Amino acid sequence: MIKQIIASVMITASVCAFAQVKVVEGTKFTTDDNLETDEKLVLADDYNSYMFSAINIDGLMRNVFPHKKLLMRKLDQNGSLVDTYIQDYANKTNGVLHNYLGSQQIDEDRFVAFTEEYFGKENRKEVFQHVFSKKSGTFTTKSIAKYTIESTNKSGTTYVVFSENGKYAAVFNDRYATKKTDNINDALVIDLRTLTPLWNKEISLSSDYVEKSLTLTNSGKIVLLRKAAGWKESYKIEMVSNTEDKDLPFDDKYIPEKLYAISKNDSDYLVTFGRKNQAVTMGGSTFGTVMFYDIKSGKAVISNTNLAGAKDMNDVKVIKTIVKGDEVLMAVQQETISRPMPTAMNRFPDPEYKLDVGVLMKFNKEGEVKQFVPLGSNPSGRRVQVIESGDNLYVSAFYPKGAFGNTGFSMKSFDFGTLAPKELTLDYKGRNFFQNYGFTDGNLVQFVPANNKLLFLNKNGKDVQMFSVYNFVK
Q: InterPro entries annotated for this entry (predicted)?
């Protein structure tokens, strides 16, 4: 009997060890490529996955499409479309404007999106929370905040940011203010696990500084980067919560441009991207340095990096953060913003955002950048995706000609300890699958550990097709 059990275990282990990687193609379906934005693959499990997107037309074209929508497409095990759930978030009253603010998966069943509407005739702004449940196949909408505004053109700006651990969301209403009025803003932090307020209050900020960037810590505190009003090159970092409102001191010769909050060993830290001095290089980027800031102790470690890329780079996107012991790995991408020329139909076109270069950046125990691995160029403007499995990282990014002997938006494996890359190959239809079908935005890639399946939503204009790679991790 014991011999039989041992033999059975050995056979099972052998089958698992030599399980063949296979690819299953879903049936193609179409989207409205001209209208849908923020597309992402979410709520994936053994049986289904969902593609979220939002319709959010800005500028003078806004009222041409009063049907502002949130869409959730349900896909079956093979990646074929089986249902579409639509939430119309437009108030059809003439003159009411709307805006999609952001979204995130809450847990295995729920996904939340935030929108706002504002109406100058009634001097009001309202923020809504839309929760989709895959169990019920429905959206549930709730008004979570109401603000008074002066007019449509003086309505201020509402931001929604999420904590890195996915537990909290912050709705920050940056009120319209002039030099003669106090800078008072509204802050609401929501516990996404219960969808109830963690804290909510008015924040009075000094009027000699204006908000430039904000982030939300994993403990539910808002951190603001503020720039001196006018031409003065001066910055301050301020942290607020239900019980706190304090400045976080740092070297005044360092110019932070972007904030991001993380946690390590249950303590909150900031990672800021910026430059070391007040001199602005006309031909270069301003994101040449990274500061790792311990919020509790106030200790800051500044590292020089090669993050500076396109000279007109405007932002840095943190794609993923991984903490192992005392080390922190961040996958980041630069973003450039261009402004299209006005047309007769659209005199004030919205800016166009394009993701640029991606890098893997590792901090040591002291907060210094000890490793910095560029992920090639990114001429297509696609989002990098990082999947973690044990000590291995699987990264999809654009690798130029000469890197591993080929070119294209592909996927590679990196060892977390050394960050040594290794190209992933899968012979499929006579070509490497990751070269042939990996040309997709990182938001449209998902890994399901339960059945070792990698999902790609390959998008070509309006056409979308799911590819499921089984036995992905060997």
A: Quino_amine_DH_bsu
Distances (CA, A) of 347 to 63, 99, 343: 15, 20, 5
Residue corresponding to tokens 């780079």 = 313
User: Using one digit for the tens of pLDDT, what is the confidence trace for 346-393?
Assistant: 766 767 777 877 889 999 999 999 998 888 777 677 888 899 988 899
Spatial strand order in the sheet of 209-216: 209-216, 222-228, 235-240, 245-247
Give the SS3 label for residue 233.
Answer: coil
**DSSP structure class, residue 437:** T
- Say how far apart CA 78 and CA 455 lie, in whole Å: 10
Determine contact, residues 321/346, Cβ cutoff 8 Å.
no
Closest CA to 316 of 378, 359, 276, 348: 359
SS3 340: coil
Please name the amino acid found at residue 137.
Answer: G
Q: Which long-range contacts (CB under 8 A, 24 or more apart) does 395-402 make?
A: 395/331, 395/360, 396/434, 396/438, 396/440, 396/442, 396/445, 397/358, 399/375, 400/376
Query: Structure tokens of 136?
Result: 């019920």
Alpha carbons 451 and 75: distance in angstroms, whole number: 16
Q: Do the bridges between strand 453-460 and strand 463-470 make them parallel or antiparallel, or are there none, so unpaired? A: antiparallel
Upper half-sphere CA count for residue 61 (Cβ side, 13 Å): 16
169 by DSSP, 3-state: which? strand
Q: In the structure encoding, which two tokens stand for residue 370, read together?
A: 């000890």
Q: What is the pTM of this model?
A: 0.88
At 42, the amino acid letter reads: V
Question: What digits encode the pLDDT tens for the residues 369-378?
Answer: 999 888 877 7
